[in-house]
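Supplementary Text 2. Reproducibility record for the structural model of the 166-residue chain.

All settings were left at their defaults, and a single model was retained for analysis rather than an ensemble. We include the record here because the model underlies the residue-level annotations in Supplementary Table 4.
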Amino acid sequence: MTDSSTPDPRGPESAGVSAVLAIVLATVGFFALSVFGLGAVSVATDADIIAVPGPGPLPGVIGMLAAVAGFALTLGAALRRQHPSFLATITIALVAGLAHLIGVWVAVLFGSGGVIIATAVAGDLVRGGASAVLLIAAAIAGWSGIALRRTRSARPRWPWERDDEE
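Retained model, structure tokens:
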């Protein structure tokens, strides 16, 4: 016998994945896709992502940390809504890409002391394809995070696990 107070005979609708879990999973996915994509661009072009001698790996690390932070904060803002829109992936991707460029630009500026060098490095990221990789990775991961939140799924249950009163 089913409970007449719930319209769905299978039980109440699941609340879906929590916003925090969706943000964590999507952010890890964004980082993984970004690292893979940047590595693929580096191998395909046979060049370093940041080809300016001197600053070392620190600008890349700071840029990626800025991109991850921008991605997570923007996705978190999008997931605050009751029914987040997939159009938010455009904003998420743009914020992550710009945060990466700004992070690298500031790190190179303080590392080398020159605005021209910092601007040249940022321009090389755009022309060399690294920024496009980050935009695509952020769009895919952002869409995934929103899909996790919008999908009202629950864990699979066996027939004998149901709370039906017989």
